[in-house]
Write a structure and sequence with these properties.
The protein is mainly beta. It has 1 helix and 7 strands; from the N terminus they run βββββββα. It has a 5-stranded mixed β-barrel. The longest helix is centred in the last third of the chain and has 15 residues. The model has no long low-confidence stretch (mean pLDDT 84).
Length: 111
């Protein structure tokens, strides 16, 4: 499920990121599977799909990422296949499936 709300923001599952227009801001949710603090890199996963996220522009000092936690990421895709995060926040207890269900309902309401 991918859709394009106003102002070129795309809410999408990680597996569908390759189909997002290159100039769009990507909104996605996934579970943290890796964190490399020295490089400010995290890997998010949703099912079998994974995306590497560069969080160098994000101050992670306030919330140390923990493996297994769900994270919301808003960013843009680099040509190298790395998502550059503008927002990266952990959301303990977030139901990822429900997140995408609500996103689809919101899209339907404005269509």
């Amino acid at each position: 499920m991918t859709f394009l709300p106003e102002s070129h923001h795309v809410v999408t599952r990680i597996r569908d990121i390759p189909s997002v227009p290159p100039d769009a801001d990507i909104w996605t949710v996934g579970y943290l599977t890796e964190y490399v603090p020295s490089e400010s890199v995290v890997v998010l996963e949703d099912g079998k799909a994974r995306v590497t996220v560069s969080a160098s522009a994000i101050d992670l000092a306030d919330h140390v990422p923990r493996v297994g936690e769900p994270f919301i990421c808003i960013g843009s895709m680099e040509s190298s296949g790395v998502l550059t995060a503008k927002v990266l926040r952990n959301c303990p207890g977030l139901d990822v499936e429900r997140f995408f269900d609500v996103a689809a309902q919101c899209k339907a309401a404005v269509s």
